[in-house]
Amino acid sequence: MDRCLVRTKRSIGYQFDSSLVVATCRRETAKGDYPLECVRTMANICKEAEAAIWQTQIFHDLSSKTLPPIDATHAVAIASVEASVKCLASAIIVITTSGRSAHLIAKYRPRCPIIAVTRFNQVARQAHLYRGILPLYYEEVPLVDWVKDVDVRVQYGLNFGKRRGFIKIGDSVIVVTGWRKGSGFTNTLRVMYVEHEFIREDPACTIYSDTDSYENLLK
């Protein structure tokens, strides 16, 4: 990889263009003889570029370029990133249908992981293109009570973070959800604190029917 390409990739890292990095890497690995070495080099360049960013100023720089008016989903995305900084949150958990709310949160570069829980496989796959998003494909049948169904999916995201080790007891977590079913209704932000252990091999598998009790699930 020559110096020109290295400079290009470093500038991409400074400009926060994740999709362009993926496209550039894909083009080179498709033609080159050393695809693994290319990807490793790309990863090292991105880490170096990320370390050179002034993290305390990045959120203000990005949010100041967003001109009002903005919709509720966009406003909640900005608020969730700011709340995660103020609360020193371990993660932002997003319940999403189309993936847009998670994409908007990633746009403002939170310092913690974004756990995007979705029931749509394509949305989960596409979320990998955005910086900091850890998509979870939730396959279980929806509960009749939508509020309980949202809470179960939030718990599913919490358990993922606990198993991976970046969410611990006492940590704060930002939860972003909608006020009704469907896409385009994200307008709710909650700050939650992890108070007790609840880790199973696959917590979603404990839900077998729409009549299962959420209270029994937490026992």
Automatic annotation (TrEMBL):
Pathway entry: Carbohydrate degradation; glycolysis; pyruvate from D-glyceraldehyde 3-phosphate: step 5/5
EC supergroup of this enzyme = transferase
What SUPFAM superfamilies does this protein map onto? PK C-terminal domain-like (SSF52935)
What's in the keyword line of the UniProt record? ATP-binding, Glycolysis, Kinase, Magnesium, Metal-binding, Nucleotide-binding, Pyruvate, Transferase
- Transmembrane regions listed in the UniProt entry: none
Q: What is its EC number?
A: 2.7.1.40
* Domain Pyruvate kinase C-terminal stretches: 74-192
Q: Which cofactor does it need?
A: K(+); Mg(2+)
Task: Give the matching Gene3D superfamilies.
Answer: Phosphoenolpyruvate-binding domains, Pyruvate kinase, C-terminal domain
A GO molecular-function term, please? magnesium ion binding
Q: Which PANTHER family match?
A: PYRUVATE KINASE
Protein name from the UniProt record: pyruvate kinase
Q: Which organism is it from?
A: Acromyrmex heyeri
